[in-house]
Amino acid sequence: MPKLTFLVNGQTHDVPAGTRFLDFCEQNNAPHEFGCTVGSCGTCCLTIERGAENVDPASADEQETVAMCTDVAGARLGCQLVIRGDIAIRPVER
Ligand code: FES
Fold first, then answer.
1. Is 44 a pocket residue for ligand 1 (Cβ < 6 Å)?
2. 45 phi and psi, to 5 degrees?
3. Domain residue limits at 75
4. What rounded mean pLDDT belongs to the chain?
5. What is the domain-level CATH number for residue 66?
6. What is the pLDDT of residues 51-73, one digit of tens each?
7. With a 6 A CB cut-off, is 46 part of the ligand 1 pocket?
């Protein structure tokens, strides 16, 4: 089962492959902030410090929102992530 690690607190959780990061966070009171939850506000912006290949690629819409929010290379929107394998994430400072 994929492991999801929150680098802000070092906690790691086992999550079924195919779990939406947003759903996991909402159901587990996880330490990550969301706003719109639909990919348009950028509140959930994060970096995947390990396992970036273990989520689906960013859509054009996601890339557009990320570009408006940060210039951090490889940043992603938490509300758009589907977990396919081990990942370790950290929120982008805003
Ligand atoms: S919560 Fe708004 S873009 Fe993810």
1. yes
2. -55, 135
3. 3-91
4. 96
5. 3.10.20.30
6. 999 999 999 999 999 999 999 99
7. no
